[in-house]
Amino acid sequence: MRRCKYPPVPLRVRSRTLYTSPIDSVKISDELLIPAGRHTLLPDEVSARQRERLLRAMGSCVSTQGYTETTIADLVRVARTSRSVFYKHFADKEECFLETYRQMTEIRIKASLEAAAVEPEWQAKLDVGIATYFRWMAEHPEVAVTTVVEVHAAGRRALEARSRALQDWMRTIEGVAVLARRGGAAVELDEAAYAAIIVTAEAYVHEYALRGCLDRVVEKAPGVQALARSLFEHGAVSPAGSRSPTAAHSSPRISPSETGAHLEDEL
After folding, report:
1. Letter string b/e over residues 62-99, b meaning 16 or more CB atoms within 10 A of that residue's CB
2. pTM to 2 decimals?
3. Is 49 found in the same domain as 156?
4. If you ran DSSP here, which 8-state letter would residue 219 be given?
5. What are 154-186's pLDDT values in tens digits?
6. Measured between alpha carbons, how far is 75 from 266 in angstroms, rounded to an integer?
């Protein structure tokens, strides 16, 4: 039997901003530390480094011990900072998690968009975007656990953030449909079809994370690609005529300049 590269996620009962870049790793490198003794770093740079260490510490702690079990004491220990520094940046643990989640999902969506952008045909964009999602999650297990598993334990605001992230992700699939129609394809999809692709992909990541086998989740990419192609080729519009994700929801979204969420414009 093949051994899983990463340990299983423990099951449990769910009971002012400066940063250098969206985080795709929980590693706290020496470059993020403040030099000992006298240094020439400006106050804003010191603040930015402290904040990013706390965000990475959140991802590290949550992915290994769970959101519920993570404490502020854990965060400041891993971030190698202090409680007073923590409260300069975040009101509480929830606020720190929400910013960690936002940045992680932003860069994950951006990775798929950038990979799809180099493909000339919409069919390839669809396949590559899906494949990149699975590969990226396999290569960033801490991000996968934090954003797909532990977000469900972090409270209502975290679930609202997840809903917004899913809508942004669904818009990228809608963007491919726009490109397909511009190319002459008779693609007729509604919100339910976009959601079927996205939620199926996320469900596989969730399952493999709980089993501790995220390094193997890429094996599910072909199935989701086949699902997406089938929906695009045969169409899927609900009897009620659901509106598109863009029209059906008024929740805040990440701007195109940040993530390229308007895939039809970016590609």
Report:
1. bbbbbbeebeeebbbebbebeeebbeebbeebeebbbb
2. 0.79
3. no
4. G
5. 999 999 999 999 999 999 999 999 999 999 998
6. 37
